[in-house]
Automatic annotation (TrEMBL):
InterPro entries per record: Aminotransferase_I/II_large, AspAT/PAT-like, NHTrfase_class1_PyrdxlP-BS, PyrdxlP-dep_Trfase, PyrdxlP-dep_Trfase_major, PyrdxlP-dep_Trfase_small
Protein family: Belongs to the class-I pyridoxal-phosphate-dependent aminotransferase family.
Organism: Fructilactobacillus fructivorans
GO molecular function list: pyridoxal phosphate binding; transaminase activity
Record flagged with keyword Oxidoreductase: no
EC number from the UniProt entry: 2.6.1.-
Essential cofactor(s): pyridoxal 5'-phosphate
CDD domains hit by this protein: AAT_like (cd00609)
Residue ranges annotated for the Aminotransferase class I/classII large domain, each copy included: 37-380
Alphabetical keyword list: Aminotransferase, Pyridoxal phosphate, Transferase
Lineage summary: Bacteria, Bacillati, Bacillota, Bacilli, Lactobacillales
Protein name (Swiss-Prot/TrEMBL): Aminotransferase
Single GO BP term: amino acid metabolic process
Length: 390
């Protein structure tokens, strides 16, 4: 087994060496070996990919779709994305110049951040937040500016945004994720529209991560790009809507000038997406536009049961209107030590959740529970939590 030459030990990319591994992954790995653990921490659908989508991918392999595609992705898929976004969200993007297919929403976000952020640039991130955003901004040499939204029901308000932009008038970008991971909060059209006048006063990009857009409850998803198209870059994909997390297929949409630059970054990062995944996504968006709805209905049942039972335990859950997470305030006797509570829960109740501090300081006295788990696992986990707390 080779050992790195000692003269090379300190010659890594400095921005990378200063980054910490994902706190979500780190905590999950720290409890993964507990015997009999029920995991209510996994951020992916508890369903299999629809059969017609799998068949399309298998046909793609049989048809020898095994070569490099254009950097932006195959034209039929870009056409399907354009149609899907138009039909679903009243967004109109030219498939030739305003859409780019990525290796998952993660790579789409990375390409977008690297396209916009120069060393020293400030990037606004409402908190709590998915930790990928902070890591990418720091790796690009940027400076994340966190906006604690806990006092405004985890929604960024125009007053909060104006206050931060007054202090940071040259901020390069705002990363806005909704429905939100970890809170499950979705924005209403009125809340989005209220942000527009503030954003229009500044030369600031908005990177809108809308990967959970098909999973909302009692509220229809609207994109900020509907009201602010010339400043907004939309990230989406089929991972959550069609239970395709393992196939890594996302897409970026925005003004042609942005996509032209981002496509260069994307090309250097991954060259092009996988052919079978692209043909699967083509089938999903063309002939499975509403595939998410049966899954969403099951998630809603899980959500309603989980909220009722958590309240019955004396806990304070944030009722989510999107995604498949519940953000829950930890019992007062644990103070703000959400990590200790999550560790105790795993060790003594055999239930795995994610400490809220994994999503920034704004989440430090919460835990995140995923109700995308199977009904049996969810019920078992909640029963164990109840017994533990009692």
């Amino acid at each position: 087994m080779p050992t790195l030459n000692e003269n090379l030990q300190n010659r890594f990319n400095q921005n990378l060496t200063e980054l910490q591994p994902s706190a979500i992954r780190a905590f999950s790995e720290s409890i993964a070996d507990i015997d009999g653990l029920v995991m209510l921490s996994v951020g992916e659908p508890g369903f299999n990919t629809p059969e017609h989508v799998k068949e399309a991918m298998m046909k793609s392999i049989a048809d020898n779709h095994s070569h490099y595609s254009p950097h932006k992705g195959i034209k039929p898929l870009r056409d399907a994305i354009s149609h899907f976004m138009s039909q679903k969200y009243n967004l109109h993007y030219d498939p030739d110049t305003e859409i780019m297919v990525n290796m998952g929403a993660t790579e789409a976000i990375a390409a977008s951040v690297f396209t916009t952020v120069n060393p020293g640039d400030e990037v606004l991130i409402p908190a709590p937040f998915y930790p990928l955003y902070e890591s990418l901004v720091r790796f690009a040499g940027g400076k994340p500016i966190f906006i604690n939204t806990a006092k405004s029901d985890f929604v960024l308000t125009p007053d909060e945004l104006e206050t931060v932009l007054t202090k940071h008038p040259n901020a390069k970008a705002l990363i806005l994720n909704y429905p939100n991971n970890p809170t499950g909060v979705e924005y209403t059209p009125e809340q989005l529209q209220a942000l527009v006048p503030v954003l229009k006063q500044h030369a600031i990009f908005v990177i809108a991560d809308e990967i959970y857009s098909e999973l909302t409850y009692g509220i229809k998803h609207h994109s900020l790009a509907e009201y602010l198209p010339d400043q907004t870059v939309v990230i989406n994909g089929v991972s959550k809507s069609h239970a395709m997390t393992g196939y890594r297929l996302g897409f970026t949409m925005g003004p042609a000038e942005f996509i032209t630059q981002a496509n260069k970054m994307h090309g250097y990062l991954v060259s092009s997406p996988s052919d079978p995944a692209q043909y699967g996504a083509l089938e999903a968006l063309s002939n499975g536009m509403d595939d998410a709805f049966p899954m969403r209905d099951e998630y809603q049942k899980n959500r309603d049961e989980a909220i009722a039972r958590l309240k019955g335990m004396g806990l304070e859950p944030i009722a989510p209107t999107g995604a498949f997470y519940i953000f829950v305030k930890i019992p007062t006797e644990y103070g703000q030590d959400d990590v200790k509570f999550a560790q105790d829960l795993a060790q003594n109740a055999k239930v795995g959740v994610i400490p809220g501090s994994a999503f920034g300081k704004a989440g430090k006295d919460y835990i995140r529970i995923s109700y995308a788990a199977s009904k049996d696992d969810l019920e078992t986990g909640l029963t164990r939590m109840e017994n533990y707390l009692n």
